[in-house]
From TrEMBL, chain A:
This is DNA-directed RNA polymerases I and III subunit RPAC1. Residues 77-367 form the DNA-directed RNA polymerase RpoA/D/Rpb3-type domain. It comes from Ensete ventricosum. GO terms for cellular component: RNA polymerase I complex; RNA polymerase III complex. It is found in: Nucleus. GO terms for molecular function: DNA binding; DNA-directed RNA polymerase activity; protein dimerization activity. Keywords: DNA-directed RNA polymerase, Nucleus, Transcription. SMART domains: RPOLD (SM00662). Belongs to the archaeal Rpo3/eukaryotic RPB3 RNA polymerase subunit family. GO terms for biological process: DNA-templated transcription.
TrEMBL record, chain B:
Transmembrane segments: none annotated. This is DNA-directed RNA polymerases I and III subunit RPAC2. It comes from the Eukaryota. GO terms for biological process: transcription by RNA polymerase III; transcription elongation by RNA polymerase I. One of its GO terms (molecular function) is DNA-directed RNA polymerase activity. It is found in: Nucleus. InterPro entries: RBP11-like, RBP11-like_dimer, RNA_pol_Rpb11_13-16kDa_CS, RNAP_AC19, Rpo11-like. GO terms for cellular component: RNA polymerase I complex; RNA polymerase III complex. Belongs to the archaeal Rpo11/eukaryotic RPB11/RPC19 RNA polymerase subunit family. Residues 32-103 form the DNA-directed RNA polymerase RBP11-like dimerisation domain.
Amino acid sequence: MSSKVSALDMPDVPMGQLPEHLHLQRTRVVCKADAPVHTEGIQYSGAYASIGVDNSVGVDSFCKSFKVKVVRLTKEEIEFDMIGIDASLANAFRRILIAEVPTMAIEKVLMVNNTSVVADEVLAHRLGLIPLNADPRLFEYLSENDAPNERNTIVYKLDVSCKKGSPRVTVKSDQLKWLPHGSELQMDSHDISSKAKSYTSFSCIQDSLPEFSKKPLGVKFDDIIIAKLGPGQAIELEAHAVKGIGKMHAKWSPVATAWYRMLPEIALLKEVTGADAEKLVKKCPVNVFDIEDIGNAGGKKAVVANPRTCTLCRECIRGVNEELVELRRVKDHFIFTIESTGALSPEELFIEAVKILEDKCDRVISELS
Amino acid sequence: MVSFCLQISVPSEHREKEFAMEHGSATDSSSSTFSLMDEDHTLANSVRYTLNQDPRVIFCGYSIPHPSENKVNIRVQTTGDPAKDVLKDGFQNLMVMCQHVRSTFGKAVDDFRANESPERMKIDTP
């Protein structure tokens, strides 16, 4: 600890700008050996009014400072950095991605025959979890009083059997056949005179519609095991897929998962040289630190080479090192990762999520006026 | 203080219950609690953030009275402006921010694709 200094001898706090320690508290989470500190976001616009600092972030300044940088983009996955945004918004996007972006999933299963060892309800549940290759934006929700039609329902058929005396059969998701005509099963009717009705009322064949004619509404992955059949067993069923959101059931969640982490920042508080530097580099299991030569005397010092890979294992601050290294997280820099289940590409999913938040705002504004 | 409960939306035929409600005072419009139905932390926490950024807001917070009820209460106290207008501005700001996020993200994805494709071609062609 430093020796006592009279307050009168201390330099004045500059007005209109935050002192260094407050700036650190505002913008960084500091991860100490036992627990992180300054984890809260300082949101209130007048938080620093007493020292003449305006903490408000107007929309204009947000728009100026906000940045997005894509790190990795594949068909299934996107990783990108969002810089200059508050955790509340980043979290809203994450929550919407998981629970509120709609997809299509099998909701109703009509069992005709199931002599397999998989019970009806287990089989139906397994079918529900199969990702479908259907763009949910082309469909409408099926509400309680609606009849299932070509705009809100996709019908699949599964008819598999294993002959007596033949080896066991593995039923995979590619055996689910899309029925663009709608249901082939007839509803039970007590009135003999009336025409037999099917379980769906399609007014046209689904693949005659331009949006589905090019892209058949199959399953996303062909090799998902649904059940295994022994000799003499059979499954015959029809599965009806509808639009829904992850809040109702996780099968409608469009993401395998979506998550974010704050950017790690590692500060060396003192210069770490020689054997200490070697020790520090060795301590980190993900090679955050590196050694740099200083001068031509053969001296070595530790530098922070890859802070992004830090997993916050805190191995580097265990024991004596706490005064050498400080682990921090940048509060407004999010490394966001989205893993899609296939119905929409990950970048489309994020855009849909942001649109949903906009719609929510729009709804409240129109209700309030 | 006279308190009142103002129903903002007229229940339409399609909707059984109203979506947004203001619970405030008849004499002082600068502080009110708003009840939003069918919303959760997603919207309430985001709008709390935008409202706290507004210098006209003295206090803003939200609560979910019961976890099995899909409802949030948002409390807004202002320096004098009607709380309802300030809340509306908060939602408006949130919407503008979302639009900006969307366009920035779209641009970033396009940039990434533009930068990536030449590198891929290099790998493909020996």
